[in-house]
Amino acid sequence: MARITAGLATSHIPAMGMAVDLGKTAEDYWKPVFAGYDWTRAWAETERPDAVILVYNDHASAFSLEMIPTFALGCAERFAPADEGYGARPVPVVQGHSELAAHLAQALILDEFDLTIMNALDVDHGLTVPLSLVYGQPEAWPVRVIPLAVNVVQYPPPTGRRCLSLGKAIRRAVESFDQDLDVQVWGTGGMSHQLQGPRAGLINKDFDTAFLDRLVSDAESLALLPHIEYLRESGSEGIEMVMWLVMRGALGPDVEELHRFYHVPASNTAVGHIVLRPTDHHDTKAG
Description:
The protein is an alpha/beta fold. Helices cover 33% and strands 21% of the residues. It has helices at 14-21, 31-35, 38-46, 98-110, 125-135, 160-175, 205-217, 219-222, 227-234, 242-250, and strands at 3-10, 51-56, 71-74, 78-79, 94-95, 116-118, 144-150, 182-188, 255-266, 269-278. Helix 1 (14-21) crosses helix 5 (125-135) and helix 6 (160-175) runs parallel beside helix 10 (242-250).
């Protein structure tokens, strides 16, 4: 059967993608930011999954105020980089895994999660920046990706509890797939940041650090955090962190923390990154 072998979460700050695209990652400002991903890039060389279920939010690229799905699953064979107003990023087209995606759609909908099925979807920096942080600038992405877009832009977003439950359902769905696949689940967005208004530039290191701690050891209670607390403590865009709970739910009750990185600031926001492994993971690659 298929199995989930790791979870990864990271900020998806668009300026980090621009730094990659423009060759600025070694500059004094950006060097400490990208150094936090050195461990992950080395890990990813040997931990190469057959598919990544990548949880992200669209930034009015594929969706608009005219159509806002709470959860949208990419079931296509390929996903082109979106033009976000300044041209598409110079990154490879994302190759999907339509067979696993179709299975996920069926399993999750029968598990009473209402999904919007996307048979055509352009993906923006919310999805492509995490791929760049882990895999650099390859001619082709080394993994197949199933996009899972979550609405955290227009009120009301899903609750943390619903996101954690969706992750648990994804785990059940993956384990019911009859092919021998190594699957990772990534959660993206956050951490604390606000892009507009009197609190623009807000960063709350204490909240972010506590969130990372609880993500590892106390996800069930973390999932009960209300929307208003995300808004109050982590800014208007901090709600993106509920997407990390989808990843966490997919890993099962207990996890091992493999790597953590936190840095302030990067383009006026906080960078957060963590790599987790389910403790019931068995390394089938070992002899």
